[in-house]
Structure formats: structure tokens, C-alpha cells
Amino acid sequence: MRHGDADLRTEGQVTPMEPNARPGVPSVVAVVVAYNRQELLLEALAALRAQTAPLTAVVVVDNHSDDDSAQVASDFWPEVELVRLTRNTGGAGGFATGMAVAIARHEPDWIWVMDDDTVPTETALEELLEAVDRPDVVLAGSRVVWTDGSDHPMNTPRANPFARKEDVRAAAERGVTPVRSLSFVSMLVSARRVKEAGLPIADYFIWNDDFEFSTRMLRRGQGVFVPSSVVVHKTKARANTDVDPGARFFFEVRNKIWLMVFSHGLNPFEKAVYMGSTLLRWVRTFRASRQRRFLLTQLRRGLVAGFGSRPRLNADVLCDLGPVTEAVVKVEAPARRAA
């Protein structure tokens, strides 16, 4: 089937990519979630093509863009596995569907996820794979820099404050740092662990989805920050997470409540520590904002939604995406049985 065929625009349609794995080398599928940034998407794909470590496949999830991102991607790299969604499922839904397709179709050892404005350096994947060459490591993240080469404050991981001293020393000897959470901006995650613990929660839509997902993955297994693996996050500004979020503050509040109440990623003590940190960040956000009344409205909405509802199952949130829905259900079946 050709990329130009009309029926490729049906719900959840996937186009194939020929495998590119080498014997004895861990299989890795890259998942890129794209939305209306075709020029940056091309940069990301060019960088994936130039990786020194082989990729089994590249899955691009087009989150219902209206700038022809999907067509541009397929024209640039026809072998890319393209998932065209008929509605915007947010970053959370995009990564959930992308990981599901990657596992259901390729059964890789690892999944490397990133946004379409993430441009990896040539050895980024190779460095990540060296860092996870241990049975206890299930998650690894790159050093994320902005366009000027400085560390991006939005994606700078913090060392795990709860890590044992011996684990910190052992990690330092390998040039890595133990972490308790990671960003979806260049995250390498064990496919086996995803099948055990489940996909990202699509109902989060945006914000805190990677925090919830990574902490849940790390309830069994270790995660590391790999400074030798570098990617460039080409955001418009070098902004921190406490910059005025506008209407998105609703998702920050609602999803953080969902995370603290319903997620099994953090233990009770960790939830208390992270919620305290969150409240301090919210105070800084309000102080710096010029639209405090509007943020207060979003805070109220978020609190009502957070305490008045709970995240729906991925199978329900993504129920109308045809083959993609089937992939999601298939991949999450083991985790559902174990719950």
C-alpha cells in the first residue's frame, strides 16, 4: 500500500517500515509524536536517520495535524511507520498510541520516545543503550539542551532523592545519575516493563503524563540520567515549568491531583514530598503571572475535575482509533490482568 493512498487517512491507520535491526544488538523503535511542526519534525527524522546505533523502526504519530506533517514525514522518509490519528489525543494519547503500535508490531527490547521538536545528536541513542546494559535499569533519559547549548530547565532531571548511597556511587562510576522520573523528551523505556505496568495514561492529555508514567515504570527497576546522550529541545523559549501556563494550568492541577490520588507510581511519603514541591511551584507561577484571576479560575476547575473524576481506561479514551485501539488493548492486557 502506498503512502498516498486515500484510505491511509482512516482512523488509526498504520503504514509499515522495514526492520533495520542487527543480530545481537538490542532492538529499538523510536516513537515521535508530531503536531503542526513539520519543519522541526523533518529535523528530528533526519537526526534519527543519522544515529550511530541502529533503529528497528521509527513510528511517527501524527496527532491530527493540519499542516501536512504526516505527508511531509512520509515524503522525506518513506519507510517510516506512520500513524495518522483523526483527532488530537494530546501528548499523552500520542505517546500511548505510539508505544502500543511499536510493541504490537515489532516487539522491541526498547522504545525511544520524543516530541517532534526534539533533535538528537548522532550518538544519543548509542549512549542511552550503553547506560541500560544492566538488568535492573528499565528507563534512561538524555541530557536535554536548548538551541544555545545550555541545559533546558524544562527537561533537566533531578537526582533521585530517595536513592541508596551505594546505588548513587555505582551509577556515578558508569557516568550516570539515578532518577525518580524522566521527561518524554528523549526517554528510552523497556518494552517489557511497559507491558508489565501499562502505557501512558491518555486521559491526562497534556502535562504530568510523563511524570506519572516514568514513576510508575520505576516502582520496579531503576532509571538513570545519561549526560553523555544529548538532544536539542527546540522550544520557542528557554522556559521553566513554572512559566505562566495560561489555560493549560487546568491540566497541571487536574492531572497532579489524579497522580497523587490514583497513580501507583509514588509511595505515600513520595507523594507528600512531591505535592509540597508542586504547591511551591504553583505559588511561584501565580506570583509571576499577569493574569492571576484567569489562573485562579483554572485552579478551581482543575481541583473540581481532579477530585470529582478519575482517569478513564486507555481502551475507552482511544476507543475510536481502529487498529490503534486494538494495539493499545493488546499491549495493556498483561498489566490489566496483573492489576
Tell me the layout of helices and strands.
Layout: E1 13-14, E2 28-34, H1 38-49, E3 57-62, H2 69-76, E4 81-84, H3 90-106, E5 110-115, E6 118-120, H4 124-131, E7 137-145, H5 165-173, E8 177-179, E9 187-190, H6 191-197, H7 209-217, E10 222-233, H8 249-262, H9 268-288, H10 292-308, H11 314-317, H12 323-338
Parallel strand pairs: 2-3, 2-5, 3-4, 7-10
Antiparallel strand pairs: 1-4, 5-9, 6-10, 7-9, 8-10
Helix pairs in contact: 1-2, 3-12, 6-12, 8-10
CATH architecture label name of the largest domain: Alpha-Beta Complex
C-alpha end-to-end distance: 39 Å
Compressed to H and E, one letter per element, the order equals EEHEHEHEEHEHEEHHEHHHHH
The whole-angstrom Rg is: 19 Å
Overall morphology: globular
How much of the residues is beta strand, in percent? Answer: 15-25%
Give the CATH superfamily of the largest domain: Spore Coat Polysaccharide Biosynthesis Protein SpsA, Chain A
Which percent bin holds the helix content?
A: 40-55%
Overall residue-averaged pLDDT value: 89
Query: Would you tell me the structural class of the helices and strands?
Result: alpha/beta
